[in-house]
Design brief:
This protein has two helices and no strands. By secondary structure, it is mostly helical. The two termini are 23 Å apart. InterPro entries: NAD(P)-bd_dom_sf, SDR_fam.
Length: 54
């Protein structure tokens, strides 16, 4: 029904988890990083890419 929803939810969850970890570990001087890909070429992102081109 919502094919692009899962990748967006996973990326958002990862971003929030990294921010939360960074806040928790900042007092110990530990920095937290993450690498999250942008849109890839799977079929579920075709509609999103078309909307961005407008």
């Amino acid at each position: 029904m919502f094919p692009a929803l899962l990748p967006v939810m996973v990326k958002g969850g990862l971003n929030h988890a990294v921010k939360g970890l960074a806040l928790e570990l900042a007092d110990a001087g530990i920095m937290v990083n993450a690498i999250a890909p942008g849109l890839s070429r799977p079929q579920c992102t075709r509609r999103i890419r078309k909307l961005w081109k407008r």
